[in-house]
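Checked the freezer inventory, then went back to the computational side. Two predictions to log before the end of the day. The first one is the construct we discussed on Monday; recording sequence and tokens without edits.
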Amino acid sequence: MSGVQHHRATLKKNHKSFKSRHSTKGQIKTVQKGSQGLSKVVTIVPLSSSIDAKSVVTSIIGSVDQQAEVNSPGITSVYLDRFKQNLTFVIPPASFLAIIDSAKVADFVVFALSATEEVDKFGELCIRTIESQGVSSVFSVISNLNDVDTIKKQTEVKSSLSSYFSHFFPSSDKPFTISNSAESLNLCRSLCQKYPKGINWRDERPYILADKFYWQDDSNSENGGYLAVEGVVRGKGIDPNRLIHIPDFGDFQVAKIAKRQFQRHSVLKEDISNESEFPDSSQDDVDPFINIDADMMSDEEEYDMTAEPSIEQGVRLDDHLYFRDEYKEDLDQKLKSRKIPKGMSSYQARWILDDDEFSDEDISDNEEMEDENGEGDFGISKPVASEYEPTDAGEIEMDNFVDLAADEEELQLKEFRQRARDNLDFPDEIELSPTVSAKDRMIRYRGLKNLRSCTWDADEKDSRAPEEWKRLLRVANYKGTRTRVLKESLQNARIDVGTPVTIFIKCDRNLVELLGQAPLILYGLLQYENKMVVLNFAIQQSTEYEEPIAAKETLIIQCGPRRYTANPIFSQAGKSSNNVYKYQRFIYPGESATATVIAPIMFGNVPTLFFKKVDQELRLAATGSIFNADHSRILAKRSVLTGHPFKIHKRVVTIRYMFFNRDDIMWFKAVPLFTRMGNSGYIKEPLGTHGYFKATFDRKIHAQDTVAMALYKRVWPRVATLWDGNI
């Protein structure tokens, strides 16, 4: 006995995780195998019209010498004795939405290729969409190979189809020949023994593939009953306080969740059919917007935007207002009656408070303190000696400037704009009509010295902001909130993964009739995931869609389990220190951008697809993923006014065709100018009454150069609406 060694008693624990009373270590391993030991879901996707999906399922089951009645379309569950595994085969209807929805919930997707028929347009749309939306694990099978004449041709066909399929899924296995019993057995073995890769966004939430659904009458219910859905909880544990999302039908509250008895071939067997979980007072509501009461509305710091500035004050430049002449005249009149100390200029006197007083002996003549260059008070240029030299067109000082005749002016304007259309220098260029005031048309625009470093208040008041803007959910830290919500969802889950349940959903009775024959899938939402936010997507146009996509164009967006109709706003991709980004009118093939909509928040890097309806068909226009949910992201639409150099003398240039009256020039005088060749300048003074003005640049400009002024206004995202599924 002295040679026998014993472990210390401190190492003996009765509550080790792998030593429960109900399960042995081998049983727990079996539960964790595959998709938590559940019946593995296998979706069959035919890529050609000649393929019979039912025969594919029959061949897989028949490879282990078993038979089953296969529902096509429908769901077929079978227990394979040879591999001791439950498989659930899903054959969706010949509908695009039903196919891609069935692929989302599948542990394995089996693509069926035809040896005698090429993949049709519909099949290629399906495989591209499934690849883009995220897929767990995939296999491919070849049917009708015996219809090919010779063995040599059969080998060529298999090689060609394998090359085609590897283009979409490079790491997948070679295609299985479904007519060959040995290869069918290998496929069946892979389905039963291989661990599915999973889909991150799906596996972070609870979801249920419905075994059946029906209407359960209940006189205590507001709608006279509930939609009862039977199935097994997958992904993560479910909490009855969270909402349930049914694709294309919306979000619904849970009345209760009843546990059912485990199936015959499950590892753990116990009767829990009498247990039910009910929501409590913390259950989420179905209102997609934040409820704001009167007290919250009065809280200006959190909900009220800053006051909208008066448009009569003047143009805005980098969040500063430049006053109009009438305001300047009132201020000048006030300064004339003010006592100014000796040695102080009129500009410095503007910073003196009204209650400051000075003695008469400190007063100095205001005119003696003007700048040497003739720049007057308040940024308005005073008349100075012209810097021009005499030219063939004559001296162009303001006193000697003569406007052209109206007919001649109109003719030259048409010629200039025709040349501009032939050689478009600025994609954002707009043309102003000579009869329209630029000040009135561009009243909401502002000037910016630098888009990347400007100051722009994200909460400034704007009458064109969406009505729902104040009721949107604001997420300060998107990644941090996602981590917290996922952690809390695990802690608050009342029903574990793998539990058969019956979920009773609060809804109208007619929903049962609208669900149709497509497999019913329920997704459990995380906290806040029914609330509207400003959702930003990283988007890239599909290589198969060659036409440019216009901003505000109606698109059908699929984001995880949701599909909604939206008019996204496009902006530049990347990150900016001031969170101001240039609005883009189009995105083109191969170009990356950011799409912004007001839509329900989804946590995580969820794949997003953008479809466009063309001739009653859906085309995959772009793909992307959720970038963040930042409401302070400012989308600045850029409009460029261009002018033509009329007279050039050194750095001083006379510009025409940018404005057509004197008042517009004075209004936009504070906004800087630039040229196509990289020069920068500013407006000095107007000339005449037809919109000519003097401008000074940093260096002499070329006669063929184009002078431009960039103006910006904020563009607000639009609210997305639930798509009804009608193509």
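The second is the one RB wanted added to the comparison set:
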Amino acid sequence: MLDKVRDKTESLVRKAADSDDPVLIESPPASGKTWNAVQLAANTEHKVTYLAGRVDLYEQAKTIAREDASLTVETIPSPHRDCPTFQGENDGDTDRVHQLYQKGIRARDIHFEGWDRVYTPCQTPDQKCPYIAGLDRLRTDTGYEDMDINDVDLLVGNHQHAYRESYLEDRVVIFDEFNPDPFVQRYPSEDTTSQVRDAPSEVISEFLETVENFPFDDLTDIIEARGADDPSVKEAIEWFEQYDANASAGKEIMAPSTRQYDASHTSAPLLTLGLLIAERIGPGIELADDNEVWENTGVDTGTRCLRDRNTNQMLVLSPPPLDTASQVIGMDALPTKKLWETVFNTEFELKQVLERKELDRYLREGLGFQLIQLADGMNHYSGGSISQKDDARFYAVRLIEDEKFPIITRKKALERYRNQAWFKRCVKPRNRIDAEISLSKEKTHAGQHYATVLSSNVFQAENLGVVSGSPYPNDDIIRRWAGLCGESTQAIRTNGTLDGFEGFGEQVYRHFTHHQVFQAILRFGRDLPPDKEGDVRVYINTQATPRWLTSINDLDVKKRKSDPKRVLVLEELIRAKRDKNSLNQQTVGTLRERLAQISESGTPRDGISEVSEKHIRNTLESEEFAKVIDAERNAGAGGADLYEWNGEEYLHQNPYVEEVDTLLAQESSAYFLRLNR
């Protein structure tokens, strides 16, 4: 099945490249997205720009390309990867460089600001910064080393490089996975370590204090004037039509600096104009997306400026200029079409490699996945909260599999996990993972959070893994993304429990939760050695999985306190089997006597002084234990039924927790037992 999926992906990519309209290909993980991008450049007349969200995908593309010596490949430079000052590798003003960059100054322009403004020793009159040299190498007007970008068969970069038209012009542009972050600026920034003052109220107030002849002096006046049909609104729009509201105008008007209390920003004019023309589209959400106003004020059409009235946060969506590309192809495992079309300001024709109802079979037959569900709820784990059941669940996985595992979860949950006793006992050390994990050096175990796993190959050679918790962001983010798409939504809750969202918000909700869980599952087992192929086991600790993912086996891991009487019955039946001085076979009555003797000794176990015959019988007769308890009918004294333990193969010794020395694990349930008195 895997070969058929890859063949279908290749066919769709080839057809899409020759199509007249942008195409969005729904292609599952391991279907060969990167390989097809390279092959399109190698085996057709098309020039290709391949944009991915991770550096390891760059390297993967270049490795594939090396197989064809005639293929010309260039990697688009990035200041964070190629500039020594940005990376803090010299004595330059690294902090100031990053502050100016966050204020909207282009990385190239920062290098030419002058050392009196920002010290960039990587760029001198005699020697170019490696980043600047890389940019010049790909310019069409420099003739740098007789290199012409139009002769490059394959350009490899990240999504943000789509803003530079020369990287797109007359080329097939392939976006690998949905990565909206480069195209959506948030005010204030989500970077909590940033020293930049970029709260909308501060940025707009700084703008109002800076400009002259503008009809408003105060942010509150703008908000009040919008609903009062105030002629000053029209006057303000005319002001922007004269001076523009784009980033270039913002740089000239505001002259952003790195002074401590300076809130100037290149986006100040746009945020002010967006606030001025925004209209309510739903509870707490306002959106400005008037292309006529944008065009008259120098702003790119397709721009969307959103304000969250509940938090006073603002978002600016700036789609890349895709019109110059010969064709645009999006490739995504589980695309939400409207999100793609909003971010890129274009309509896509959707093509599927597989229908979603077939993805379950693809996992089983194509990739050899076995999925085991541990959770009894969504486990959204917001704010770093974790379930009290997690330690038992992960110990159970460790004991059942008899090996440690890598884990994917939420960022704050991962931080909490690292302080738990089970973490080092259960999670695989980093040095056993044959790949680079983007964690700081002191964090020595193989844990990743959801934000880092999209298209990641770090765990591709691991046939065992755990995905824990839902990556659900929060209600506000769902509302904002629905709002950027021009839709209103609200959360639906029953007794405080989130059931979903109204309207299009439900698709956004599932995109950020269920689909990301699916993506995380597929990070494992994609490149296994021959002895492990077709044997991938992923334990899932959240119910946030797509509806069509049906072949999931439930494993209910129980702590002793969840059903202590049942545990006591099982323990005593096992002890009877192992005790040379006891009969292997027990009746309900003899088991009750054994349990009563323990209570009479003055040490009632788990606070339980008595277990009734009814409870004992229900436990022994439970279908749950049919494989481990043999029953011989009417064979005991007085026609009593005899019961005998016969499940040693399902017992796993637990050396980690003294209080529970054994795990009884069957297909659908697991119990922690204490067999050593």
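For RB: Residues 2-17 form the longest helix (16 residues). The first strand starts at residue 23 and ends at 26. Let me know if you want it refolded.
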